[in-house]
Amino acid sequence: MNKMESMSGAKALMKAMEKEGVKQVFGLPGGANLPMYDEFSRCDIRHILVRHEQSAAHMADGFGRVSRKPGVCFATSGPGATNILTGIATAQADSAPMVAVTGQVPVAMIGRDAFQESDIIGMANPVVKYAFQPRTAAEIPETVKKGFFIAETGRPGPVLIDIPKDVQTNESEMIFPDEFKIQGYHPWADPDIVNVEKAIDMLLHSEKPIILAGGGTIISSAFAELQAIAEALMLPVVTTFKGKGAFPENHPLSLGPIGMHGHAEANKMMAEADCVLAIGTRFSDRSVGTFEAFEKRLKIIHMDVDPAEIGKNQTTQVAVVGDVRASLRIMVKLLLQKQIKKTEENTWIKHVKETKDYWKENLKLHPGEMGAAKLLRKLRELLPKESVVTTEVGQHQMWASLFYDVIQPGTFFSSTGLGTMGWGFPAAIGAKVAKPDVPVVDIAGDGSFSMTENSLATAVLEDIPVIVFLLNNSSLGMVAQWQRTFYGRRMNGVEQNHCPDYVKLAESYGAQGIRAQSIDELDKAIKTALSSDVATVIDIPIDPEEDVLPFVAPGTSLSDMILPS
Amino acid sequence: MWAILSILVENKPGILFKITHLFRSRNFNIDSISVGVTENPDYSKMTITTYGDEKQVEQIVKQLDKMIDTVKVEHLDEHKTVYRELSLFKIKLSNANDSMEINKLANAYGGKVHDVKKESIMVELTATPDQIQAFEELAKPFGIIDVARTGVAALQRSGA
Ligand SMILES: Cc1ncc(C[n+]2csc(CCOP(=O)(O)OP(=O)(O)O)c2C)c(N)n1
């Protein structure tokens, strides 16, 4: 036990965060968190000011996904707190580590509809991993320690700490504990070796085995293990969209993401496989289509850190509960001991390669110079492989899935669970804070970028130079595509009509704006952006009618793809 | 399948909300619920009964188990468990004989009679939900004015 010291709750909060290694927070002040803000001038934590609290949460999220340490966001009570909710829900849906700290009205005012009071604990509970509301200053150090622990262990997620104003100002003798107990929290389970053996056996005895790597593979950084197993057993690898880039997408065994907007070859092979090793995935409907069609044909081996995921969406034959990296390590070890290694000479792998080659050559692409595939391949060509890419939500996101190959695992992030427009740009800023030495690019659509474009102010004033790769179709493209496909071309509420001018918009914030209307101009623009030290928006006008294809319509199975005609 | 779940939770405000919210948000159903503090005031025990197929019940247990405020979650085996629910029935008295008949019925089910008035009688019954159901069926012809039920409380038998 450490020695006691007397200080205010707000000061204890800063101290406790410093002990957790927090170097910066993203936020916006208000009456109910002023005591905490006052402490920023007396500690080493950098405060990064945002223009809207939703962006603070997305920045913390982006930081958390890249660094695997909880990103921290700050908001005042009431509207500040409700503004960060979308960001919290986004982190929860994608299992991103985050700690959100909100101010609250003083304890005695809670429940009396005081000015800027909101029951943020009640509102946030369904979308957080855990929520705390310390009622005395003395609780703060242990609360912070528990909060960070919960946010980053097991299946990571967002934790909310809501601190009443008087709890921030009250002085107390503080104990900063090194240890604590949370009785009902068991983030680690040791993977069961017997089940790993069963899994190997099942894979060896199936004719068309495949690996499906989900976001959990990225969260636990199980890249080397995944590759070792794929290569040892000659298993083709598909990913969920959230798992995109868990396996190098230029690897001969890689087929890319499956799902609604997955690669044709990935969906085809997934639909033909007879056994799947599913790693760190929740079998989302966007990935597997209808659940029934999926589990009917397949033997499923499911590895996940969260026991509640086993059997939630799919019936499995073998389940391995535990950190997926630990589980895969056991598998690698067993394969080595048993000296199991498969050769390339099998009909399944040959078929997989032929299918992949076929689709690489025969998928019909947009004929124009500024078709999405060409633009994203140009970006890939010019970006160093360690660059971090985030995306917004829409067609551009799915084109990124199809045409931007992730080569270094774990460098691609997207809002795939909640599908939050406006996530990518602030998340890119958070990512750049976590990894200042690599280029960070947000692949954006004009609709999404409009939602959080005011983060340009943060990027410029706080000197966080990220690149916005804006595929500008002057519309809410993905919705437009659905209206063209499913609603008889009745286009309602989707047009954005070239407003604003994103080059001028960027410039008005003091950022760099470049318009690229040909591949040559794009080439130059990307190079300029990469070599400049200010945030850059590359506005790329594209055909508003270009569709994302192939497409698995909702409620159908992976074998029913709509293909470009 | 009818399932009895015994859930030990930290005795903190807001937990009942979180547990019931979990049922709602995951599209599960609560058939009955009862809560009381345990011999250790740090904990409360909830007994929730629910319906679902085996897979569903397993999923409910896992989701409950995952909650940080739940200390222990058990799916109790009905045959190895003592489970009881308290119910109160207010029953109409129309004929001269009704009171005697209802008294007999209550006795047969181990119930107690309270608040005997000219036009109504109250029966307290502590039994399994099935038995309470059976009693209700038999009491119906007299005319049931009102019912209140507590939800099941359950403990595993020793050595079970
Ligand atoms: C906050 C939010 N509101 C609405 C939606 C529904 N939605 C999904 S994609 C989309 C259009 C996205 O437009 P844009 O960002 O311009 O990308 P594009 O599809 O044109 O590439 C919309 C409105 C959403 N995902 N998130």
Written description of the protein model:
The complex is a heterodimer of chains A (565) and B (160). With 565 residues, chain A is α/β, with parallel strands linked by helices. Chain A has 23 helices and 22 strands. A six-stranded parallel beta sheet of chain A has the order 3-2-4-5-7-6, with helices on both faces. In chain A, strand 4, helix 4 (79-93) and strand 5 (98-104) form a beta-alpha-beta unit. The radius of gyration of chain A is 24 Å and the shape is globular. By secondary structure, chain B is an alpha+beta fold. Chain B is 29% helix and 42% strand. Chain B is built from four helices and eight strands, in the order E-H-E-E-H-E-E-H-E-E-H-E. In chain B, the strands form two sheets. In chain B, strands 2-3-1-4 form a four-stranded antiparallel beta sheet, with helices on one face. In chain B, strand 2 (32-37) and strand 3 (43-51) form a beta hairpin. The mean pLDDT of chain B is 96. Classes of the chains: A alpha/beta (565), B alpha+beta (160). The interface between A and B is medium-sized, with 18 and 19 residues. The site of thiamine diphosphate (TPP) has 19 residues of chain A, from helix 17, helix 19 and helix 21.
Keywords, separated by commas or semicolons:
heterodimer, A: 565 residues, alpha/beta, six-stranded parallel β-sheet, globular, B: 160 residues, alpha+beta, four-stranded antiparallel β-sheet, 42% strand, binds thiamine diphosphate
Overview in brief:
The complex is a heterodimer of chains A (565) and B (160). Chain A is of the alpha/beta class and 565 residues long. In chain A, 39% of the residues lie in helices and 17% in strands.
| Poorly predicted parts of chain B | none
Mean pLDDT of chain A: 95
Count of helical segments of chain A?
A: 23
Q: Count every beta strand of chain A, where a strand is a DSSP E run of 2 or more residues.
A: 22
Helix content of chain B: 25-40%
Poorly predicted ranges of chain A: none
Structural class of chain A: alpha/beta
